[in-house]
Design goal:
Chain lengths: ~600, ~375
């Protein structure tokens, strides 16, 4: 039934549903920061589904084995039909709201406010507003179609330049101080009134970004070929790159200021969690959903060992057991404790596999949180009130409390964890984990002690994760059970999944994308979790190997793909056609 | 631990047996130690609680109230657990987002219940109002479950098993935060008609129960009977069983596998919708976060009873409800642990872990033999 609807209309319907969803969930109405001129983030977000749907429809595609390109006019017209469908759905939405009254709808959907409606209808009541919305969506769809139909060398720079403009429009609070430090004026770029880009600034940035990307793409092949000419130059280039990265990492906190440094600190903590979880999930193939247990163990152990106080109704009190060790003396103990907890968690679940293991470890994570915050252990860990006044980590005069200094502490720990992960990957242990992950029975048959290596994976992963917890305790200085929800486990998992299971660079990219980007664009903070959910689904459906796949891991998935394709071919061929339009929904959400 | 020696040994039945002999003790040992510890803890806790001085002891009527509320809670778990069990039976997949399907049903029905309460209809015609409220919840949950299947799970039908699970976690987070954005973060009071109000009781077979508990238990029993009949008697039920048995063969026999799986999700959604209203009426509140804990508890219940078995889900729900209601006061009070009900989730998860360690097939399941 659905398959009979033309592809273009179907794409428009998906875009329309996504648009209405974005309105209802609050993204469109509540993001009121101006990006360019008077265009708010909400408006930008609302325009994305139609543009994207138009772009997807107009892109070259393979029809029965042959690549079919559409001309720009064909692209524009099919994009316009997409936009028309999207606009029609939005008009229906506007109509329904007008019919029932905003107040009635608002009893259920709290995001439906007069502001949202005037944004949708450009401030015009009745039919005029709906017509304007349809016209706008047609225009957006046509723009998307035009972009989609143009050749790669124009399309890619256009998309990149547009992304740069929108991002920059949201970054005044970071760019402005940096430019001011250098003594540069930016009132041509950012409007003093709206704090977003001025139209002149937007156009200028777009042109610069477009030209740069265009030129780079035109010449990149030549540049890369030149640098790869001999092994010696290649080595030289690699050294230069490494030096640049090193210098960049050291200079970074001073360049970006203290707000940004704090975000980087948090990114670093999630890099640690991701690296630890990567050992368990990526290397050993044990899906652990209770990873927050190690984070909590690390944080609470650090708090107790370095002399944090627990919060009581009357003020602060020392916990029933407390030492006043320096952070750096406490860390080895924390690591050992976490490794032991890893063994404790690992031992009972040795027999479990796959999804059962996931649920049981999730249970352990929740048990850890409940125990740490229970009245029963209140004497030791402060109950639901938690602990506070956790001392900083001093070396001489440095106490690493300042976000810019804290960054270096995190960086040091991350480098250590990175080195360990990297060395483990291809070591005897790492290969044993690989073997175990790919086939437990075969691994056992060739002499890999699965008991030993599973326990080792839990202990190692736990130890690295506890470092993240310890740093978190120092960074925040106070702990309570709200910091140790299941969400931490899921975020860490999302970091590993997005980057690619078993891939070390993947963890870094994953943490930067999932922690760094929401941190920098703080407008979206409210919708961070929604985004995580969408990312997890979209990655699994569209690119299960992750952004930067681990080579061996992606081979495995490919083999499965081949087997899967064979099966799929055998069943039906039109099933693929039906599912082709659906992924759009998750991507834009 | 010492199978390093197996490396050089030639393969054969003798080494296989030897390998097992060498390997088993550690796992067995862990199991045995664990079993002794837990039995010891349970026996000691129960003994200490029951021999508390009379003024600190719970009196028999309190225990009775614990048991009844446990049974009612178990009814809700059973209905959600059926959704897990149906999907697991057919797809071998844990639908982690099922708790959110339940939450969405509860939310959708809340708005109607609220409107009826404001217009007075809820108290004038409680029966009709409740019928509509149940219908709305069932419809919503059913639609969400079907949408979930179509958008998130169908593209992954033949992926490695962890892939759909991770997707399901994503879907769970997505649905929870969708509800957060749609309906707001605050906890809202779910209106309860006066006839089912907190202090109104019915006495059945000499046991006095709150009316709402009776409603929950009766609807749960009816739903389980209805589902059993549907699965065992109807043509669609038969195709569900066939797909659960072997998807490829079923499709060769002319069964529309996609449609059957969709119906399975729809059935799970319908039951979750019923559970949603029951939850709202029992606890009198609704928020975007109510899906998680009952969801996990219901999953535990389905594992406890034997995942893939309908009777198992019902039994598991009942048992888990009882364990949650009676367990904390019985086990923890004797040790002078303050606020024992805080540790309810510890009991849930311990049950889950223990079942999976000692009897992964659950109470009614015997390994892989029984499915749906």
């Amino acid at each position: 039934m659905i398959r009979r609807i033309p592809r273009v209309v179907r794409a428009g319907l998906v875009a329309g549903i996504v648009s209405v969803y974005l309105c209802l969930v609050g993204v469109v109405g509540s993001l009121v920061t101006d990006v360019v001129g008077r265009i708010t983030v909400g408006r930008v977000v609302l325009s994305i589904p139609a543009i994207l749907a138009g772009l997807v429809v107009a892109r070259p595609r393979v029809v029965s084995g042959e690549l079919r390109r559409s001309s720009v006019w064909a692209g524009v017209s099919s994009g316009a039909i997409v936009g028309l469908t999207t606009g029609a759905l939005l008009a229906v939405f506007i109509g329904v709201v007008n019919l029932l009254g905003i107040e009635t709808i608002r009893n259920v959907f709290i995001a439906v406010k007069p502001d949202l409606m005037s944004l949708l209808t450009f401030g015009h009541a009745g039919v005029v507003g709906s017509v304007l919305r349809i016209v706008a969506e047609v225009a957006l769809g046509a723009v998307g179609g035009a972009i989609g139909a143009t050749p790669d060398r124009i399309r890619v720079p256009t998309v990149i330049a547009a992304t740069v403009v929108i991002s920059l429009g949201l970054l005044r609070r970071i760019v402005h101080p940096a430019l001011a430090q250098l003594g540069l004026r930016d009132d041509w770029l950012f409007s003093v009134v709206t704090l977003g880009l001025t139209w002149f600034g937007a156009v200028a940035v777009f042109v610069v970004a477009f030209v740069t990307t265009f030129a780079w793409r035109a010449n990149s092949a030549a540049i890369v070929a030149r640098t790869h000419r001999t092994p010696a130059t290649e080595r030289g280039v690699r050294l230069i790159v490494l030096a640049a990265i090193g210098g960049g990492l050291i200079a970074l906190p001073f360049l970006v200021g203290s707000i940004f440094s704090q975000i980087l600190g948090t990114v670093g903590i999630y890099v640690l969690l991701g690296l630890g979880l990567n050992i368990v999930v990526g290397y050993a193939g044990l899906l652990d959903l209770g990873y927050v247990a190690f984070f909590a163990v690390g944080a609470y152990t650090t708090a107790v060992l370095t002399g944090g106080s627990r919060v009581t109704t009357t003020g602060y009190a020392p916990p029933s057991f407390s030492l006043h060790l320096s952070f750096f003396v406490a860390i080895p103990i924390v690591v050992v404790v976490a490794a032991l907890v890893g063994l404790l968690i690992g031992a009972p679940v040795l027999r479990l596999r796959g999804d059962y293991l996931a649920i049981v470890t999730l249970g352990f994570g929740e048990i850890a949180r409940v125990l740490f915050s229970s009245d029963w252990l209140k004497g030791a860990f402060g109950g639901t009130q938690g602990m506070t006044a956790i001392p900083a980590a001093p070396i001489g005069n440095l106490n690493f409390r300042d976000t810019q200094h804290f960054y270096f502490l995190v960086l040091a720990f991350c480098l250590i964890a990175l080195y360990i992960s990297w060395r483990l990957a291809d070591s005897r242990v790492g290969r044993a984990w690989n073997a175990m992950r790919e086939d437990e029975q075969v691994a056992e048959a060739v002499g890999v002690s699965t008991v030993r290596y599973k326990l080792l994976a839990f202990a190692m992963g736990g130890a690295i994760g506890s470092l993240g917890g310890a740093l978190f305790a120092v960074q925040v200085g106070a702990l309570n059970n709200a910091s140790f929800m299941l969400l931490v486990s899921i975020t860490a998992l999302a970091v590993v999944i997005l980057g690619g299971m078993g891939s070390i660079p993947g963890v870094i990219v994953g943490a930067l994308v999932l922690i760094g980007i929401p941190g920098v664009f703080s407008e979206f903070e409210q919708y961070r979790l929604l985004l995580y959910g969408a990312v997890l689904m979209a990655i699994m459906i569209l690119r299960p190997q992750g952004l930067i796949p681990n080579i061996r891991r992606s081979q495995e998935l490919e083999e499965e793909d081949v087997a899967q394709d064979k099966w799929a071919e055998a069943v039906t061929s039109d099933e693929h056609a039906a599912s082709a339009a659906s992924p759009l929904g998750e991507g834009a959400g | 631990m010492a199978e390093g020696t197996d490396l050089q040994a030639p393969p054969g039945p003798a080494t296989a047996r030897l390998g097992r002999l060498q390997r088993l003790p550690l796992r067995r040992l862990i199991q045995i130690v664990l079993a002794i510890l837990i039995i010891g803890f349970v026996v000691l806790g129960t003994y200490k609680t029951l021999t508390l001085p009379p003024d600190e002891r719970y009196d028999p009527s309190t225990w009775k109230a614990f048991v009844i509320s446990g049974v009612a809670q178990g009814g809700i778990y059973a209905l959600i657990a059926l959704g897990y069990t149906l999907v697991y039976g057919v797809l071998r997949m844990i639908n982690f987002a099922h708790g959110e399907v339940f939450m969405m049903g509860c939310f959708a029905s809340f708005f109607f219940a609220d409107a009826y309460a404001n217009s007075g209809l809820l108290n004038r015609h409680p029966f009709y109002a409740l019928a509509i409220i149940f219908a709305i919840a069932m419809l919503t949950s059913c639609l969400i479950a079907m949408l979930l299947e179509r958008v998130a799970y169908r593209p992954l039908r033949n992926s490695p098993r962890l892939v759909p699970l991770i997707t399901a976690i994503g879907a769970s987070l997505f649905l929870q935060n969708t509800a957060f954005g749609f309906f707001g973060p605050q906890t809202q009071a779910y209106p309860v008609p006066d006839v089912l109000g907190g202090d109104r009781t019915w006495t059945i077979l000499g046991i006095t129960m709150q009316r709402i508990q009776v409603v929950v238990i009766v609807t749960a029993i009816l739903a389980v009977i209805g589902l059993t009949l549907f699965i065992s008697r109807t043509r669609t039920g038969r195709s569900i069983r066939a797909v659960a048995e072997d998807r490829e063969i079923a499709s060769l026999m002319g069964i529309d596998v996609d449609r059957t799986i969709m119906i399975t999700f729809a059935l799970g959604g319908l039951l979750a919708g019923i559970a949603g209203v029951q939850f709202g009426l029992t606890f009198g509140q609704v928020s975007p976060y109510i899906g998680f804990t009952p969801g996990i508890a219901a999953f535990t219940a389905s594992v406890l009873g034997g995942i893939g078995s309908i009777g198992g889900a019902a039994l598991g729900g009942l048992l888990l409800g009882l364990l949650q209601a009676v367990g904390p006061p019985l086990l923890f009070t004797g040790f002078n642990i303050p606020a024992p009900f805080q540790l309810q989730d510890v009991i849930t998860f311990s049950v889950l872990v223990l079942v999976l360690i000692f009897r992964p097939g659950g109470i009614l399941g015997s390994g892989e033999a029984e499915k749906v």
